[in-house]
Amino acid sequence: MIGAGYVGLVSGACFADLGNTVFCVDKDIKKIDMLNNGHLPIYEPGLSEVVNKNYLSNRLRFTTNLSLAVKESDIIFICVGTPSSKKNKSADLQYVFKAAKEISKYINKFKIIVTKSTVPVSTGDKIEKIILTKKGKKYFEVVSNPEFLREGEAIRDFRFPDRIVVGSNNKKITKKLESLYEPLIRKGATFFSTNRRGAEMIKYASNAFLATKISFINEIANLCEKTEINVDDISIGMGLDKRIGGRFLRAGPAYGGSCFPKDTKAITVTGDLYKTDLSIIKSVIKSNINRKILLMERIKKILLNKVKKKRITVLGVTFKPNTDDMRQSSSLLMIPYLQNKGAIIKYYDPTGEKKEFSKLKNVYFSVDTREACKDADLIIIHTEWDEFKTIDFKKILKRKRAKIYDMRNLYNPIKMKNLGLLYYSIGR
Ligand SMILES: NC(=O)c1ccc[n+]([C@@H]2O[C@H](COP(=O)([O-])OP(=O)(O)OC[C@H]3O[C@@H](n4cnc5c(N)ncnc54)[C@H](O)[C@@H]3O)[C@@H](O)[C@H]2O)c1
Questions:
Q1: 131/111 Cα distance (integer angstroms)
Q2: In this predicted structure, what is the pLDDT of residue 399?
């Protein structure tokens, strides 16, 4: 595995758990040192057990030595980041191409080179060209095997995936990958193969579709707020239709995370490149940006436009529960915005203090929910960690007039009202 981040580390550990010998290579020495000293660089439920078990049995190794790992391996997965380019909205492929160049230097026998990173259509062709400058065609094959695991559920998603997608223009190689995944296929995972460009496209189209579903219900929630309808009922009523399905149909903050924002942007760039207007995805991106602004306006409204000196508590700052990943979390915009308006902010997150807020004046990390909430004028439930689902607000709130803005609809509005709490939520 080239890249020992969320994808490379989880997949590497899980492939080792299936009996393979795996090298996780990363150029980040600190990360590799941590891993070799028994510490995980990321928070992911269940990961430490899989890593420890396979590290101790010597099936899983961590190294910065790419040459050694490439020479020893039959299959090489590229799992490096593909963030949004700083210049335009496309995927920045510099890490992928650098990895391909490095791999090409150390190919000593036939290798299957698999792109697990999310890459735009035809990147596989470019990787092939890069490697061809150093090694002949008979030494390697480039395959696409996009990753669909969700942070927070990554181990389960690896072991029980909805589908495994492999894109290759060579049937023999597809068979080889099918046999690598055979233990998962035996347990019921569907193996789907297509050509290389097809697999690259499946990943982007899937993420763009899921982002569309989220934005769709978020906009419906806006309408529900104006028409005195409970959006949760709409999600259930719609989701019961098997053609629609209930997942990803829960209203909340703007979508964030390390994938949807960058992947929706990148696919529209691909569309433009091939003179195809992906107008639906473009309007999803716009809707999501608007949502960030809309929810900040709503916070201001809840505080009757008096944000200055208000004590605001944010519960959960990551983009979703069970991960420490802060990339593109809507809290990254919300907290600085409120701080800039003069609010005094306390935040609590089960994965600890965040460096992203450490330099902000009047923004403080609290060690638990009670400490974070007790003096608040407004509590914002931003991430639906389980521990935020059963808070006894009556007991911990010192201020009787404290308000609660539940951005995840975790509580029943009628029950909250009956308890005498000033409770606001999304689309209800
Ligand atoms: N995070 C997710 O939930 C998820 C899910 C599906 C797909 N993906 C995709 O998988 C890819 C990786 O995502 P991630 O979240 O794991 O990224 P990440 O930033 O957590 O990890 C990438 C790692 O690659 C390392 N790296 C970069 N260049 C290297 C090189 N030349 N040699 C060795 N190591 C190198 C970096 O140091 C880093 O540790 C992205 O394309 C992403 O879109 C991510």
A1: 11
A2: 78
Which DSSP helix (H) or strand (E) runs through 124? helix 123-132
Residue 279 CA, distance from chain mean position: 24
Distance (Å) from CA 245 to ligand 1 centroid:
30
Q: What angle do CA 146, 147, 149 make, to 5 degrees?
A: 160
| Whether pLDDT at 234 is above 90 | yes
Cβ neighbors of 129 (< 8 A, separation 6 or more) are: none
User: Can you list the pairs that 32-40 forms with residues at least 24 positions away whose Cβ atoms lie under 8 Å?
Assistant: 32/4, 32/62, 32/63, 32/64, 35/4, 35/9, 35/62, 36/62, 40/9
Side-chain-side CA neighbours of residue 64 (13 Å): 8
Q: What are phi and psi of 263, to 5 degrees?
A: -75, -35
- The whole-chain average pLDDT of the chain stands at 97
Write out the two tokens for 184: 């998962």
pLDDT of residue 86: 87
**Identified catalytic residue from 14, 79, 224, 259:** 259
**What is the average pLDDT across 188-210?**
98
Residue 401: per-residue pLDDT: 86
User: Active-site residue 259, yes or no?
Assistant: yes
What confidence score (pLDDT) does residue 36 get? 98
pTM of model > 0.85:
yes
Question: Cα(10)–Cα(44) distance, rounded to whole angstroms?
Answer: 9
Residue type at 43 in one-letter notation: Y
**Mutational test site, ligand 1, from 62, 258, 324, 328, max ligand atoms within 8 Å of CB:** 258
